[in-house]
Design goal:
5-stranded mixed beta sheet; 5 helices; 5 strands; alpha+beta
Length: 141
């Protein structure tokens, strides 16, 4: 595979939006480019993976910088999956959290991605195994 360059920065929205759409998540959320730019700009830490000038991977942490950190939006371009890019991104995100001594480093996984997270440094939490959320569609206006 061609050389992958890892850069700790917020990607341009024109690079990132197609990568985000590749997940299919936006079929439900229907976020605009402006929404997504706002979300990634509010990240605590971000890692991009580039092959030449193409953004092929991304991951980010949202955090208070002390107590809680959530690893979210790990995305690798389908053409570049299963080459270790996602794992390398998650490892760097965890390392960055540890550098700041953040105590609770968490991620939400589906059944399908649990194997990936396990191999990237996470373990299923024995203390807090049930992820809880408020389900709503975003409402009107
Ligand atoms: C999940 C995802 C980020 C994995 O990225 P990737 O670059 O293909 O993963 P890697 O090649 O770094 O895989 C690391 C390890 O996890 C394993 N792995 C990767 N995807 C896996 C999966 N879906 N299920 C089980 N194991 C998986 C790999 O085999 C590899 O194992 P190894 O270290 O023994 O060789 C990628 O498939 C993706 O972008 N999916 C769509 C978005 C998504 O679901 N993101 C995660 C939730 S935020």
């Amino acid at each position: 595979m061609r050389e992958v360059r890892y850069v700790e920065q917020i990607p341009s929205i024109d690079d990132y939006f197609p990568l985000f759409l590749s997940t299919g998540w936006n079929d439900q959320y229907k976020f605009t480019k402006v929404d997504i730019l706002k979300s990634i700009s509010n990240s605590w830490f971000t890692v991009c993976a580039y092959v030449e000038n193409d953004l092929v991977g991304f991951g980010r942490v949202i955090s208070d910088g002390v107590h809680h950190a959530f690893v979210v939006d790990i995305i690798v371009d389908p053409d570049y999956q299963r080459h270790g890019i996602g794992k390398r991104i998650v490892e760097r995100l965890i390392e960055k959290c540890k550098e700041s001594k953040i105590r609770d480093i968490q991620a939400f996984s589906t059944e399908e991605t649990a194997g990936f997270y396990s191999k990237s440094g996470f373990e299923i939490s024995a203390h807090n195994p049930l992820g809880m959320q408020v389900s709503y569609t975003g409402g009107e206006g």
